[in-house]
Amino acid sequence: MRDCCSTNTKVQTPTCCSFKPEWVLGNMETSAGEVQCVSTEWSWADRIGLIKSRISAFRMHYSVSPGLYAVGEPDEKCDVFVTANYKLSFDILRVALKGLNAWVLILDTQGINVWCAAGKGTFGAEELIRRIRECQLDKIVNHKRVIVPQLGASGVSAHRVRQESGFRVCFGPVYARDIPAYLCAGYKSSREMRTIKFSILDRLALTPMEILPAMKHYFIYALLILVIFGFQPGGLGWGKVWAGGSPFLFLGLVSIFSGVFITPLLLPFIPSRAFALKGWITGMILIFTALRLIDLPQLGHGLLVLFSYLFFPAVSSYLALQFTGSTPFTGRSGVEKELKTAVPVYITALSVSLILIIVYQLKQWGVV
Amino acid sequence: MKYLSDVSTLEFDQGKCTGCGRCVEVCPHGVFVMRDKKAMIVDHDLCMECGACAMNCEFDALKVNAGVGCASAIIKSMIKGGEPSCDCSGDDHGACCQ
């Protein structure tokens, strides 16, 4: 651990009536004005925020004010860690800085995490330079070093920051938990610390936000299925809706489960590098199994079996392909290549599926 | 985990490389290593085109068509036009921007 203890700074508790979030411990006077001191612990509110941001659109508004903050009792020798103003990014950093005295410089990324904001350019050299000037960092510290998370490098040009602000960018480790080891090694990340991982737990944490949007589409699909099976020669006949439509409602759920949960979870173990193919393989296996489990007379009909093997694995494939946006290893050119083949296949599968189900209904009515 | 092979647009001009090591430092997939005081690509297929290396190469030795490897963003750009971007502003999106 680095020793950055200060003797000339003073932490004051805020006045009783001002609103302060739980993670603000008080204020600290610096040569460039007052700075808020932040806790290095997870509070219950922080944990609830973490869960809500993982499962809902809550995260779209989960941000903190950009600017300079203090961890511990930092002085002019202490390091400056840069992060995004997405509250979860900030929480992970401040907790990782436990036991250290440091400055945290939060950029305005409109509440988006470092990685995505770097891709969009909001976590970038321009904003960093502006924030360094605005916070008068040259008055706060007597060195010219800022530590930027490595995953911010796709937005931050280190040489531009040096040229325009005089501050040298040191890229820190990918994961904030490696910061103490990085500092001990003299601002050096090992190859391990520089490499992004995508463990089964990481993938599991991402699946709730895949499931929720897919379920919204499922309700539209369910309505369509009920209407298709509800149509009788004499008009809408709801008597056969449940018997005819329910197996397809179930198979629809299976295909979603396959594309947004099973495929992401078992990603490295499913053959093929193409996500569309991975999703299709998983979909085929699960639909095959599900069709063995459902023993309803209408599924004995060749047209419906064909429909099931054509439509549902394609849904699973499409949903698995969407997961490329959540992975840290898929590139633009690869996804474009997949889409060039997959999109025409999806359109064909959807069109043929519709024709099959309409022909089946017409046959049921004795029209053809 | 590796994605599709022979698709990355990463180009490296070793002649321009001064061996500063920035690319090795910023690449999150270990695409580069230092050999004989120059950077070299060890596995082209590991590149996800994030653009961190090109952004931080002061000597213009690296080029890559950087962008988001996100099907949803690319489909949106195909329909609406423009560059694919990780647009996290709506409620109906995947988990990419956590």
Concise description?
The complex is a heterodimer of chains A (368) and B (98). Chain A has 14 helices and 10 strands. Chain A is an alpha/beta fold and 368 residues long.
Structural class label of chain A: alpha/beta
Helical content of chain A (DSSP H or I, runs of 4+)? 40-55%
| CA distance, first residue to last residue of chain A | 80 Å
Run of helices and strands of chain A: EEEHEEHEHHHEHEHHHHEEHHHH
H/E element string of chain B?
Answer: EHEEHEH
User: How many DSSP E strands of chain B?
Assistant: 4
Give the overall shape of chain A, derived from the CA principal axes: elongated
Question: What do you see in this structure?
Answer:
The complex is a heterodimer of chains A (368) and B (98). Chain A has helices at 44-55, 87-96, 114-120, 125-134, 137-140, 158-165, 179-184, 191-194, 200-206, 208-230, 241-265, 275-293, 302-322, 332-365; strands at residues 11-12, 24-30, 33-38, 67-71, 80-84, 102-107, 145-148, 168-171, 231-232, 235-236. With 368 residues, chain A is of the alpha/beta class. In chain A, the strands form 3 sheets. Chain A has a 6-stranded mixed beta sheet with strand order 1-2-3-4-6-5, with helices on both faces. Chain A has a two-stranded parallel ribbon with strand order 7-8. Mean pLDDT of chain A is 88; it is low at 1-17. Chain B is elongated. A two-stranded antiparallel sheet of chain B has the order 1-4. Chain B has a two-stranded antiparallel ribbon with strand order 2-3. Chain B is 19% helix and 12% strand. By secondary structure, chain B is an alpha+beta fold. Chain B has helices spanning 22-26, 52-55, 71-80, and strands at 11-12, 32-35, 38-41, 62-63. At the A-B interface, α3, α10 and α14 of A face α1 and α3 of B.
Give a topology summary:
The complex is a heterodimer of chains A (368) and B (98).
Chain A: E1 11-12, E2 24-30, E3 33-38, H1 44-55, E4 67-71, E5 80-84, H2 87-96, E6 102-107, H3 114-120, H4 125-134, H5 137-140, E7 145-148, H6 158-165, E8 168-171, H7 179-184, H8 191-194, H9 200-206, H10 208-230, E9 231-232, E10 235-236, H11 241-265, H12 275-293, H13 302-322, H14 332-365
Parallel strand pairs in A: 3-4, 5-6, 7-8
Antiparallel strand pairs in A: 1-2, 2-3, 4-6, 9-10
Chain B: E1 11-12, H1 22-26, E2 32-35, E3 38-41, H2 52-55, E4 62-63, H3 71-80
Antiparallel strand pairs in B: 1-4, 2-3
